[in-house]
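Z., the sequence and structure:
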Amino acid sequence: MLKKILLGLFLLLCTGLVWFYSIGQGWLGSDWQAAPVTGGPRLQHSSVSEQSDNIFAEQQMRTERYDTPQVLFGDLHSHTNYSIDAYVFNTKAVKGGGIVTPADACDFARYCSALDFWSVNDHAEGLTPRAWADTLKSIRECNHAAGNPMNPDVVSFVGWEWSNGERDDAPSHYGHKNVIFRAWEEGQTPTRPIAAAPSYVLGKVPSVLLGLFSLTDGVQAASDLGRFIQESNQTPVCPEGVPANELPADCREVALTPRDLYRKLDEWGFDSMVIPHGLAWGTTNPSTADFRDQMDQYERRYENLLEIYSGHGSSEVFEDFRRFDPSSASDDICPDSTANFTPCCQRAGVLAQASCDDAESPECVQKVEQARADFVKKSGQKGRTLFPQATLDDWAGCGQLQNTFQPASMYVPRMSAQYSLALGFDEDGSPKRARFGLVGSSDGHQGRPGSSYKETDRLLYTDSKNLGRESGLTDFYRPDKESGSFFYTGGLVAAHTQGRNRDAIWDALSNRNVYATSGDRMLVWFDLLNGPDGTVPMGSEVMLSDTPRFRVRALGAFEQQPGCPDYAVAALGAHRVQTLCGGECYWPGGDRRKVISRIEIVRIRPQVRPNESIAPLIEDPWLVKECAADGSGCVMEFEDAEYGAGARNALYYARIIQEPEPLIGGDPFGCEYDAQGVCVKRNYCIGESARPDDNCLSVAAPRAWTSPIFLEYY
């Protein structure tokens, strides 16, 4: 009898494994593709009375001139379910967002976030020829629906993300870069994307595990996912030694280094740009990464812009800290803490000391030193296993950059924007500089570009995952993953253009006449007033020996009203406004703008010697102006009398700070403070402590970052 029971259980187990395997293999699935985009443009769906108040009306209905100066807002980093990680994240088990296609992203950009331009950038490592063709089809439809090509309601660009993932080898980890093309018409874009690896890491998940998604998402949805992953895995790698424009369309083209990528883009010959992002993210980059090691691969003709802020946080500031001491001959040296960073090996010593009866005893001192050394030997977060009973709050935010605006998790300081801009030499000591313009974008994996217009739906507008008890994934949640609390609604890129068409936008991006925002649509101008030929804008390079004079002007973003305008409801319908937009849209009400509270100027004087220390070259802030709290904006004029005397190159950018307000992840640590303003308890927005309806709001000050003005002394 027992043998029959065991045999029955064995057969049942085998049947279950075969069932889930068949689902994960996609045998029961089908190829999903984007539905047609919703007809447009926006004002086609507006009433006459609404058009008179619509913020787009003046620009949209202009018919005689198309070269009017204006500030346009966009998102150049958006993923759909054609990114395999986005496909997995949007399952009900993980997030519950559902399938999102490039057509959905188009509709969101047009009707929900009301962007002026955007780009789709799915991961090239997982894209298949069919998925790429479907993406191009949707982008062409989106632009066709935009109205007059010289004055469209939204410009949709197409590209992909090149994601180098050699995380454990810092010198060969070239990070993540978005490739974007100026054109989208047939014959003016590559027939396939160019990947950084033959396959995407999430494409290697065992089929049985993929099949388990059917328990929450249903057999059809889970098998569709399995089918897409199998389709991606079975895409053959293109042969080597053949020019990119001569390769067959049905293979995966691979460029292992940025230099290989640029060579292949040259072979295609299409106008394109490459935008690095996520440089300071310790979640995807080696903790020892240093942009100096990548300078030999930097090509300014492609890499003219840098994504300084996204839904994964800010990569702006350089803090001179290390997680271990590379100058020591011993591997067990724990570096000192700084004002804004505590190495977790130092915190391990604090936890060890707390277990002592006498903290001053020689035995306790030895215990503390041993705990620090043991933590360093464990390497990274694995050292936390030395104290299995310690909570995240016990670790007190160690390993994270603190006391700064929405930082990237596990911050890598020598990949930050400030550090990169301060470098003057590559790793071999040869002169080389990166001159980046600064942009923001969302990097959202929900197919919802520009989702930063309201802080109302954490799961829909950010990359936060639902990993609490109700998701069924509690057992997979690891308590050292506070990085899940470092997700934000994302940023935007603002472009000073001469018109609304794609060429006007592309020219502004190419000239670096752009700035980044943390999501709000502030209006910012930053000019050098006394260039050799007069006033020049942000992003410019100027040969100058005189004392430079500058001006910054800034206006706060419009206040938002709840809900969505009539044109969105008329175009999408009430149900889709709820499911796609989350029931909320970009919808400014009246003329009231938020207050600009201050303007900060950062001065960086790049290296003039290969071994020159970086930290003293970055003056942040160098100048500060407090602004009137009347909502009228702020103007700051200043000069640098030290420039000529210093006789060296310099760059300047402005950081504009808006009045504080509740933001999703405004404080990723979720701090509770004592009377002295010290964080005494942390409440990370992760796991069971983060309910799906909890937006984890904390007060923080939105901001904008201008592209630098680069002065070359002569």
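The chain has two domains: 42-189+270-319+405-713, 322-398. Residues 42-189+270-319+405-713 form one domain.

Let me know what you think.
H.
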